[in-house]
C-alpha cells in the first residue's frame, strides 16, 4: 500500500494560508496592497471586533470583469505576473497570486466589483468555494468583505489576541500604506469610529503629519539623495527627537514597506555620537531603484527584500541621511 499522496487543493490552501494570513492585520495588508495595485485613489477600511468578524476594504481602482472575479480566488491566479522573466522585474506589490486564495480559504467572503466597460458582479464564497454569483449594479472599483476569519481553522483562531491587540496591528498595516502612498486617500474605521484619514494629496509630509502627529512632523528634516542606482527621499527626525524603539522607522523600497535591520543600521550610523543610548531616530524613507536590482520574492509576506547590492543600499541611506 502506498502511503504518499498529494493533498487536495483545499488542504494545500489551508496550509499556504497559514503563511500568508497569520492574523487579521496580514489579511488587511494584502487587501490594501491589492487596492493600491488596482490604481485606487481612495481606499476605505472598516473593521469590527479586531477583524475577526468583519474586514471590509472598498477601493475605486480598476475593478474586475465578471470572468476575472471568479478566478481571482484560485491559488496562483494573478494578473501581475505571466512568466518566469516577470519574476526578475516586479513592479507591483502583489505577484504571487496567493493572498485571495489564502484569505478566502479561511473565511466567508462577499466581493462586489466592476471594471470599466463590463457589468458589475457580486460573489459569495464560503471557505474558498463560490456559493453565489449574481450581476450587481455598483460603481467602478472593488469592495471585498471578509467575515468570520479563521472560522474553519480552530488551531489558528486560538492564537488570536484580544480585539484591541489585533486592531492595533491592523492600524499599523494601514499606517504603512498611508505613509508609502501619500497620493492615495486612506480611511480607517474601527467599530464605526474613524481612526485615520489621509488626504491623498501626494504630499508625504501631510501624510506623516496625519499618521505621526505634530510633535514628530515638526521635528523632521527632508532627505534627498542619490547614490549609484538608488534614490532616497523622505524625512528623518532631528537628533533631539527620538523614540525608545525602532517601531517608528519606516522604510519603503519601490513603495513597498519592508523590514530591514541593515537599513536601520545605515540610518543610525548617520547619527553617530548624536543619539543617547537606547534612543532611535524616526524615519519615513522611500528608496527607489530599478526593479531588476532588488528581489522581493524572499518570503510569502513580502516584507523582506534582497538588494543586488546590499552595500549600495546601506551607503545610499547612510549618505543621504548624513547630508540632511
Ligand atoms: P496578487 O496580488 O499576488 O496578484 P491576489 O490573490 O492578491 O494575488 O489577487 C489576485 C488577483 O485578483 C490580482 O492579480 C488582481 O488581478 C485581482 N484583484 C485582487 N484585488 C483586486 C482589487 N481590489 N481590484 C482589482 N483587482 C483585484
Ligand atoms: Mg495581492
Residue share in helix: 25-40%
Tertiary shape: globular
Bound molecules: adenosine-5'-diphosphate, magnesium ion
Unreliable runs: none
Would you tell me the structural class of the helices and strands? alpha+beta
The major pleated sheet works out as: 8 strands, mixed
Strand line-up across the major sheet = 5-4-3-6-2-1-7-8
User: Radius of gyration from the CA trace?
Assistant: 21 Å
Number of helices in the DSSP assignment? 10
- How much is the average pLDDT? 95
Q: What is the terminal separation in angstroms?
A: 69 Å
User: Can you write the helix and strand succession as a string?
Assistant: HHEEHHEEEEHHEEHHEEEEEHEEEEH
Written overview of the protein:
This protein is α+β, with helices and mostly antiparallel strands and 324 residues long. The protein contains ten helices and 17 strands. The strands form four sheets. It has an eight-stranded mixed β-sheet, with helices on one face. It has a five-stranded mixed β-sheet with strand order 9-10-15-12-13, sandwiched between helices. The chain has a two-stranded antiparallel ribbon with strand order 11-14. The longest helix is centred in the middle third of the chain and has 18 residues, at 163-180. It starts with 8 loop residues before the first helix and ends with a helix. The model has no long low-confidence stretch (mean pLDDT 95). The structure holds adenosine-5'-diphosphate and magnesium ion. Adenosine-5'-diphosphate is lined by residues 30, 34-35, 38, 59, 61-64, 72, 77-80, 94-101, 142.
Amino acid at each position: 500500500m502506498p502511503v504518499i499522496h498529494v493533498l487536495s487543493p483545499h488542504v494545500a490552501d489551508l496550509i499556504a494560508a497559514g503563511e500568508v494570513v497569520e492574523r487579521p492585520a496580514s489579511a488587511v495588508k494584502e487587501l490594501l496592497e491589492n487596492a493600491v495595485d488596482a490604481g485606487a485613489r481612495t481606499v476605505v477600511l472598516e473593521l469590527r471586533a479586531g477583524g475577526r468578524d468583519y474586514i471590509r476594504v472598498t477601493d475605486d481602482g480598476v475593478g474586475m470583469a465578471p470572468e476575472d472575479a471568479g478566478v481571482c480566488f484560485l491559488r496562483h491566479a494573478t494578473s501581475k505576473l505571466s512568466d518566469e522573466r516577470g519574476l526578475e522585474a516586479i513592479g507591483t506589490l502583489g505577484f504571487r497570486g496567493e493572498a485571495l486564495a489564502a484569505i478566502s480559504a479561511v473565511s466567508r467572503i462577499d466581493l462586489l466589483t466592476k471594471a470599466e466597460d463590463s457589468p458589475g458582479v457580486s460573489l459569495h464564497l464560503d471557505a474558498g468555494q463560490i456559493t453565489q454569483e449574481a450581476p450587481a449594479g455598483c460603481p467602478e472599483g472593488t469592495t471585498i468583505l471578509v467575515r468570520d476569519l479563521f472560522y474553519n481553522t480552530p488551531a489558528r483562531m486560538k492564537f488570536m489576541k484580544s480585539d484591541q491587540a489585533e486592531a492595533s496591528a491592523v492600524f499599523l498595516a494601514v499606517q504603512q500604506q498611508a505613509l508609502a502612498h501619500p497620493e492615495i486617500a486612506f480611511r480607517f474605521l474601527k467599530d464605526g469610529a474613524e481612526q485615520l484619514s489621509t488626504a491623498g494629496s501626494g504630499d508625504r509630509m501631510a501624510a506623516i503629519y496625519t499618521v505621526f502627529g505634530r510633535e514628530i512632523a515638526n521635528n523632521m528634516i527632508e532627505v534627498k539623495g542619490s547614490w549609484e542606482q538608488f534614490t532616497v527621499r523622505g524625512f528623518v527626525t532631528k537628533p533631539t527627537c527620538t523614540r525608545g524603539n525602532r517601531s517608528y522607522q519606516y522604510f519603503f523600497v519601490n513603495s513597498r514597506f519592508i523590514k530591514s535591520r541593515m537599513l536601520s543600521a545605515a540610518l543610525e550610523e548617520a547619527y553617530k555620537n548624536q543619539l543617547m543610548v537606547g534612543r532611535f531616530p524616526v524615519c519615513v524613507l522611500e528608496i527607489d531603484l530599478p526593479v531588476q536590482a532588488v528581489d522581493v520574492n524572499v518570503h510569502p509576506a513580502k516584507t523582506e527584500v534582497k538588494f543586488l547590492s546590499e552595500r549600495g543600499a546601506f551607503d545610499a541611506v547612510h549618505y543621504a541621511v548624513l547630508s540632511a
